[in-house]
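Write out the 3D structure for:
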Amino acid sequence: MTRELLDKSYSPETVEKKWYGFWEQEKLFHAEESPPQSVSAYSIVIPPPNVTGVLHMGHALNNTLQDILCRYHRLKGDSVLWMPGTDHAGIATQNVVEKKLAAEGTDRHHLGREKFIDAVWAWRQQSGSAIINQLKRLGASCDWDRERFTMDEGLSRAVRKVFVQLYNEGLIYQGDYIINWCCRCRTALSDLEVEHEEIDGAFYHIRYPLSDGSGYLTVATTRPETMLGDTAVALHPDDERYAHIAASATVTLPLMDREIPVIRDTHVDLSTGTGALKVTPAHDPNDFEIGIRHNLPSIKVMDDDGMMTEAAGKFCGMDRFACRKAVVEALKDQGLLAQVTPHRHSVGHCYRCHTIVEPNLSLQWFVKTTPLAEKAIKAVETGKTRIIPESWTKTYYDWMHNIRDWCISRQIWWGHQIPAWTCGACGRMVVAMDTPDTCPDCHSTDLVQETDVLDTWFSSALWPFSTMGWPDQTPLLKAYYPTSVLVTAFDILFFWVARMMMMGIHFMDEIPFRDVYIHALVRDEEGKKMSKSLGNVIDPLNIIDQYGTDAFRFTLAAFAAQGRDVKMSEKRVEGYRHFINKLWNAARFALMHLEEKYADALDQQNEKALSLPDRWILSRLTQVAQQTEAAIDAYKFNEAAGAVYQFVWHELCDWYLEAIKPTLYNDGAEAEKAVTLSVLWQVFKNALVLLHPFAPFVTEEIWHALPGTKGSIMRANWPENLIPGEDPAAEADMKTVMAAITGIRNVRGEMNISPALALSVVAHPEDPQTQAVITANQALIMNLARVSDLAVDTAAQRPKAAATVLIEGAALFVKLEGIIDFSQEAARLEKEIGKLAKEMTGMTKKLENADFLEKAPPDVVAGVREKHKAMVEKRSALETTLGRIRDMME
């Protein structure tokens, strides 16, 4: 292959475009349909982003983690299928297109259903691929040839098949039920599609006159407009306060002059309020259940647009909130409003348009979930599916054990239209895969299809198997189902994960995934949730433009600790951009010396010819490869990224490359140089492979410049069974050498000695092993510590005016006489300590000031604390150095 030459500096944009195009062209993301039995299959289905979506931090984290897993498993030799696709996002997409139509001066009703659906498809063709292109910029190695859409023909067939089968099994039914209703979107919402927000409201205490004239029952409500549809007042059967109220008692409903019964029901909370509860079965889920138990009528006083109906009497035609005000005024006028008390409470809002949701009695389609949930619970209990972190398992059980039937119908036009037809002649309902020609009972052709569409999550629940070709029994299903892992955020554990579990087990008789990895949220650097209102949203695409994809991905992985939110800041990404640059510069240095003859040449070298740094770096490579593998297998992405980072930056770049420079530049040591370059090739090649899942672009670029490599790095082998393997003795010896070098460097730094000035050192080893190590590696220590003379003396005493460095097994005496003016240095340190003490005094007073701590913004207080802590640490270090100087002056 033609070797690439590395530019002086790394240019992410150029490199990323080049290699992503190469990967796609070479079909490197494409999974074999029927991999050989000797090859393990590994599969992930992407949580399909909404077709309306744009890349945000949640997408970036989620897809980066999935890509790390997929690239890692390819390097391990597995046949990897990462199934991509997008969700049709019923309500969200319809809202987008409706806004577009409104801007054009029309609406969906003017167009009609068929033309509106055409308009949505046209919008999807034009704008629906934006999120896919953004995922590609992130480096996502999905099998794009197999991209699916929840409304494509194959998935639509799967949806109809599931609906018809569940209906025939009695698991789908129609029923009047209290559902969450959005008056703006004019559709039902599942419980999970309702977002609760705290708002300031009020309790309205209303007097309901007893019909016999003996007094009142006072009820409290936050929604007085619904009282117009009350059909009872409920008391707890054990409430002594109302023991005198007869079982046959009634009250007169205020404003409506309708007599309604007083009933007894244990749902009433004895400890809250007056103990009298208004019952409105058509507008409250709990009241609906009470109504069923007591056979109460349900009176709808509000229509689907949030307007009051004829059943609301004189309030008919009013908006629900205008009606609330009117009802309160009317109650005041009649002396029936006892009091109004402020009340802050949680109110449901539509997750799409944020309109306040109304509980609404409506004929809807439902899935009976309890029978489906039983097997989904058992699958987790028996360990067939693991939820990671394990703490989320309890949340999963809590929800599944208390699951409610799932309302699957939506009163919108964009989505999978329910495959049910009603005969206009005889009323027979026909549920079928294909449009029926005639009614099976009366043979009439007057068949009208249900206008509702299915909840978006209905088709998403089939995603793991429908994307692989079900209901056909395809080779892809046979090879890759069940999938290996689902990577997702906790907020769709119930929306999606639980429903996929239920549907997968029911229709495939097998779990949809073996593992569920639930990652945390990406927050800002202070731990606050990102939101437009706070102005702290970080756009992933801007970050990629500024710092490159690899730096961004590495940041996400490095902070993706299980159960802990990712605190994201540009400063952190900038730090990992420095890491990418460090790797790039190291590669340019290595490539100045490496030739093809050193590729895979290590096994031809005599192990005894390896230097201590060679043995050490090979041992560390073996360990880091094992650590990284174990961490990725356990979904500990931060530990995996941390291990590779530490190895590449600190061990390979900071120590090994510096240690071998004398060898590389010694023209008289060709044999030694050949051994070292064989080691360097082996280590650098495998370091790139270890890094590739996290930083795919820069590693591919360097890979193509490295002599002796073939094809793409994506086809490389994960480093396993490396030769010569772990070498504990080399690691122990190198630890001694590095401690000596670091100790001498620290003295130089603390004493403010110029790096150009060579020092004289005496080593006093305490045991033969340490003596042997220091003696054998004198040249290495002298070179890296900038030492002109290193004497090894078991009988050495500390010379006058020498700094002492203590390491395990030895003391090092760094001679400083004539190097620094001790009196002058002591005076300088005393002056700096005094200046620091003054600054700290003012800061300490501030932190002891309760007024400041209470009134200053939290981030300001935190900043002062951090600065104070840094000053304390600096003063401690200066005082330690001053103490050492005074010791040397004695």
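The first helix runs from residue 12 to 25.
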